[in-house]
Amino acid sequence: MLKIAFDDIYVHPLPEGHRFPMEKYELIPQQLLREGVITPAQLFAPAPLEEAIILLTHDTEYWRKLRQQTLSEREQRRIGFQQSPALTQREITICRGTIDCALHALQHGVALNVAGGTHHAYADRGEGFCLLNDFAIAANYLLQQKLARRILIIDLDVHQGNGTAALFANNERVFTFSMHGANNYPFHKERSDWDIPLKDGTDNSAYLQLLENALPALTDHARPDMAFYLSGVDILETDKFGKLKVTQAGCLQRDEMVFAHLRKHDIPCTVAMGGGYSAGIRDIVNAHCNTFKAAAAIY
User: Fold this and answer.
1) Which residues contact 68 (CB under 8 A, 6 or more apart)?
2) pTM metric for this prediction
3) CB neighbours of 142 closer than 8 A, spacing ≥ 6?
4) In Gene Ontology terms, what is one molecular function of this protein (predicted)?
């Protein structure tokens, strides 16, 4: 059964000016339920993450600042949110959801987090609306618990997963792959194990051909027994910041391509939604819902 982590506290920590793109976290499960793609039994609300697991990935001093609400103004500006206890609570709930999804995926093939994909967070700081790095936390947890030996992170958000790349720069058990806009945030890129920078205006044909060529090489080289897939929909031509020309159909083909390849090789897959900033909320929600539909169809 497809399992979906649903962050039911998403509205509480959001400052004015940031609610619109976050509205999707409530609308996605509502639409999936309305269309009959899922049932209520497939949704779960995670508990907050334990401190010991956070500290497998993040520095003690940085976590202390998040817990005690002592981030400096500069640190808050880098993140993009004003600090609040509710914001920290939301972040640790998202991270627990990604771990729970990974545990389910190990048993049943796939699981999806309605939120997550906080790939700009480093060990010692947050950036780009990301406080804690949920994929890194989940990957380190699986490795520490000996539930996985080798992990592949497929990051197809339009923004490079700079925090993730830095966190695993010297870890041979985690292979990081990022296909992202060359001229997009972050403007200082870290070095993933494999980066494919995309030109502005990259369309369906070019995008999907690059991905189709990359997937076999990725699994051959990384030899993973778990994959994490960041399925950002900011690659859409309607996205305000993405600079690419991928259509809704092309975005769906991307998801189908990733899931079909991982399914063919019996690699469990944990999914997080990542970014999406189209002017119309319908475009964002439909594209994210297509990711769930693709997972349900292939798994």
Assistant:
1) none
2) 0.94
3) 102, 148, 151, 226
4) hydrolase activity
N-terminal to C-terminal alpha carbon distance within the chain:
9
Helix (H, G, I), strand (E, B) or coil at 203: strand
Paired residues of 195 in beta bridges: 178
Question: What ranges do the domains of the chain cover?
Answer: 3-298
> What class is the 3-298 domain?
alpha beta
Q: Is 5 within 8 Å of 100 (Cβ atoms)?
A: yes
What is the spatial distance between Cα 84 and Cα 59, in angstroms, rounded to a whole number? Answer: 19
Ramachandran region of residue 242, left (φ > 0), alpha (ψ -120 to 50) or beta?
alpha
